[in-house]
Specification:
Layout lengths: L1 E7 L9 E5 L7 E9 L4 H20 L7 H25 L7 E2 L1 E7 L2 E7 L3 E6 L2 E4 L6 H8 L4 H4 L21 E6 L5 E5 L1 H4 L4 H10 L4 H11 L6 E7 L2
């Protein structure tokens, strides 16, 4: 596998509240994490970094002890996200300035030509296979619900005034409902994990074209394109190629 990652503050923010993690090549556990924090003061930055560190420690401490079967790994991912939620939520209760903090969270664990994915919020995971890009996750957002209900069109969702309102996030409540899934990750497939700082600025067709043009430079080009188009938010990408 080849992995290319980048996180950037963007053009309009003075702090990067995104946090990413890519497991070192020599490690047997292939773990990739992206969190996009939110909250006043510096709560978003704290929430995202706490979530990523919690996932890293939980996976490294307990993954070796589980059965390496599909259902066991999926259950383990759910427990990992619940653990990360408890860490962020507890911190938000301890410090008044952090009361409103929370974060999106994407976890991708690659094992045996499969991608085990944990998802909450409106960061996204895409898979590129052959000549097709497919979004694997569903945004936990108010406008996504409006689209699914048929109240607004997909096109209207791009400029809706409440497009950043989340219906689910990590760390805001004592309990969470993450999405947990497993998808095939075959030879020549590409996975893209990204924050909404990319997808709000760059269309899926553009993303696909950039990934297909030069994957080794795609992380730099995607971030540059998002900034060229306004860069109104922090931008993070993790690209995983199963070569």
């Amino acid at each position: 596998m080849r992995v290319f990652a980048k996180t950037d503050v963007g053009r309009m923010r003075n702090m990067n509240q995104d946090c990413i993690y890519v497991s070192p090549e020599e490690e047997s556990i292939k773990l990739y994490i992206l969190a996009d924090g939110m909250g006043g003061y510096n709560g978003g930055e704290i929430a995202s970094s706490l979530a990523v560190e919690a996932v890293k420690s939980y996976v490294k401490n307990y993954f070796a002890s589980i059965q390496l079967e599909k259902e066991s790994i999926l259950q383990f991912l759910k427990e990992t996200m619940e653990y990360a939620n408890s860490i962020v939520y507890q911190k938000s209760r301890e410090i008044e300035e952090l009361e409103e903090m929370g974060t999106t969270l994407e976890i991708c664990l690659i094992y045996n030509n499969k991608a085990f994915i944990g998802h909450i919020g409106d960061s996204r995971v895409y898979r590129i296979r052959k000549n097709f890009i497919r979004r694997l996750t569903t945004d936990h957002s108010y406008v996504e619900k409006l689209v699914r209900d048929g109240t607004i069109t997909r096109e209207q969702s791009y400029t809706h005034p409440k497009k950043n309102m989340l219906t689910r996030a990590l760390g805001c409540n004592p309990d969470i409902e993450p999405e947990i899934m497993v998808k095939g990750f075959l030879k020549e497939d590409i996975l893209l994990i990204c924050s909404d700082g990319l997808t709000n600025m760059v269309s899926e067709n553009e993303i696909y074209g950039i990934l297909r043009t030069d994957i080794e430079k795609a992380n730099e080009v995607l971030v540059s394109r998002a900034n060229d188009n306004g860069g109104i938010d922090n931008i993070s990408v993790i690209i995983i190629e199963n070569n």
